[in-house]
Amino acid sequence: MAHALSRMALMTAVTLGTFTATNMAQASEAACEWTPERAVTFIVPWGTGGGTDANARRLASLLEQEMDVPFNVVNRTGGNGVVGHTALARARPDGYTIGAATIELSTMHHLGLTPLTWQDATPIALVDQNPASVVVKEDARWDSLEALLEEARENPGELTASGTAQGGIWHLALAGMLQAEGLPPDAIRWVPSQGASPAMQELMAGGVDVATPSLSEAQHLVEQDELKALAYMSDTPNSSLPDVPLTADVLDSGWTQSAFMTISGPGNLPEEMTCSYARAIEKITSSDAWAEFKASRGSEVVFEGPEQTAELFRETDQQLGEVINAIGLAR
Amino acid sequence: MELDTLFRLFSPQSLTLLVLCTLYGTLVGAMPGLTATMAVALLVPFTYFMDPLMAISAIVATTTTAIFAGDIPGALLRIPGTPASAAYVEDAYRLSSTGKSRSTLLVSLLAASIGGLVSVVLLALIAPQLARVAIGFSSYEVFWLATLGLSCAVMTSNASVIKSFASLFIGLFIASIGIDVAVGHPRFTFGWYELFDGVSFIPAIIGLFALSEILRAVSTGKHQPPPIEIRETLSRAFREAFATLARYRSNVARSSVAGTLIGALPGAGADIAAWICYAFSRRFSRHPDRYGKGHIEGIVDGGSANNAAIGGAWTPALVFGIPGDSVTAIAIGILLLNGLSPGPRIFTDNPEIVQTLYGAFALTNLLMIPIGIAVIVLSSKIVRIPRRVLMPIVLLFSLVGAYAITNSVVAVWIVLVLGILGYAMEATGFPLAPAILGIVLGGIVEENFMTSMIKSQGNLFAFFERPWAAALGALTLMVWIFLLGRALYEGYKRQRALSLNTPKREP
């Protein structure tokens, strides 16, 4: 999955669903009229059936219509995303390899998994953004995020939470939030899991107290009254669950955190190709077909051009790097 | 079932799709190196553009038949097509060697079909209740369940307990390669990114079973085993198969029910179901000494359990939207994509999904019979090919399959290294099956152990604090005590045999 951290300032810069002509301003020198003449390989660093895969495949099929050449989706999974991101960043920058680069590209080097950073790739566009949530069982004793944090403050290390692997984005979302609120980042202990689904299984089974997956991943269990959502780590209400309190409102720190997915190319992708792809993707993300697809997944339509996407990577890299250091996972 | 759903299931498009997917599943399952999960992953791009109910039917048909078809190369070549067939591969192969491949495969086919149908009935009756139990399984329970599965591999092995344990631990070692599931630290990877995800069981199966078999064929030179002959007419094979199923009808019933229940639990799939049912079949059999030497009874149990588990695996996915494996994860993705959310209310809000699912399961398990029979008849042509021609072809397909999983050459190296390991193990009398199960379940055991220890902050008694965990833990410990007892007895017997053979020296 894609993910992202951003404090309020960044979230305002990356306002959901809006995009303006200025996004393309950096492309003024290039004509942005390059088109591929043969099939393009589209690398996805995560497995079939997941959120990144679904977004990538839908986008690839729309790119096919837009650019009139086949886009072959290849799932290069493995190594917590290292394998696929490496393959993407190190591919020949001829425009015939692009792919989905997710927020992990800005965290994996802090975790010591790879020397690869987001600067080794060429960001093209932001296409998906999913804020985290704080969910507990429907019959849990906390009715608000404040109550939960209060208990964590009084009994640090008593409560447990899950959502993804150690150092994964949902772990950083929780630890970052605790830290921003002046609590030790491990005041709620993290129990690693292989992803959001096993984490929600643990939560339902009473194995952990809290889960912090994206709200869209928890949405159906919240709607069916199995879980209750204490908070949505965003500053804009979720369109499907508008009543979930926003962390930007209820927390003094105004902490927000989301996962993101970009379309990126290999390092040193020529400007002309980058802006041509960005233009095609901008057109696709403003289409009805894309809006319908996003609505079906319970997420909002987002688009940002190459420069803003690079800026998002840069800020995320710095802020999540601090969180990773604070919780002692930096290597 | 609503007539509407029934008409839709029997519409020409739906029937064509089901037949195509049954054929596709058979092909994939029968090819060592391609598995049910991979077959579904290959279907995904198509399902995005299908009607959601059709897409679900396609997935159901493919996985169901792939699990049965995994028995075919197991019986004919001693190479299980999927890990779920590995439990009884030795029995199936030895029966085939005596010319009984047709009746053996017919028994697998019919047992699989009955197992599948029983699981549909159980799902229709108790899916919500079953899902409630399954959703209560946290890491403690899953740890015990996977450990029980592992112990069963040692329990069913014909080799000595010590050698079976050694083989199991080789498998567990291989499973520990890659990124540590709990804290994310790479182990035994030598900085090789391709090894970060560990050794996938597909190249492992190909290496341990297929390549080692080929190496043995090479090393024996001209003294190769003769190709499998078929000494049964089809009608005799049918009579034999029906008689077998009638004789072991209580095994079929027991393992179909147990398979469904095990399949519904998180972390357990067709493979654990087959091993546990095979082990318990042997435990309660009147002829436990015949297991692993070409006895049909275990095939009846394992064959019905693994297909029943496929149905069971859908319960938590359907009732809570929490997928138990990658196949149901893909299915949930498709449902969500079409605005249908799984959850307790799916039974009232979208009954057509539930009915289509049950209908597709039932229909596939029936369609599988004629298609399976056709494949069994056709496969007799394949076994007439001399092994020295057939095996390299199998190897070629397997290597391509292994390469296709990760799109990387590392899988091919894994096949080669494990092939040599498998050859060495066979040559020295170490059984291969426990190693395979170690590779398949090692990650699950480790992950759930680590998760549990992190949750309980190192308190081992937490493994017995919850009711289901305590029950499963006690059962597993009983199996261990039994195994330790057997190991001591074996040691005592060997000592005595030794002391009887060596003439006593007078002091």
UniProtKB/TrEMBL annotation, chain A:
InterPro entries: BUG, Bug_dom1
Presence of keyword S-adenosyl-L-methionine: no
Keyword field: Receptor, Signal
Origin superkingdom: Bacteria
Signal peptide: 1-27
Keyword Cell membrane: no
Coiled-coil zones: none
Family named by the database record: Belongs to the UPF0065 (bug) family.
Protein name: Tripartite-type tricarboxylate transporter receptor subunit TctC
Species whose genome carries this gene: Kushneria indalinina DSM 14324
Automatic annotation (TrEMBL), chain B:
Signal peptide annotation: none
Domain DUF112 per the UniProt entry, residue ranges: 15-437
Transmembrane segments: 15-44, 104-127, 133-153, 165-183, 195-215, 317-337, 357-378, 390-423, 468-489
Domain of life: Bacteria
Keywords: Membrane, Transmembrane, Transmembrane helix
InterPro entries with a match to the protein in the record: DUF112_TM
Alphabetized Pfam families for the sequence: TctA
PANTHER family per UniProt: TRICARBOXYLIC TRANSPORT PROTEIN (PTHR35342:SF5)
Name of the protein this chain belongs to: TctA family transporter
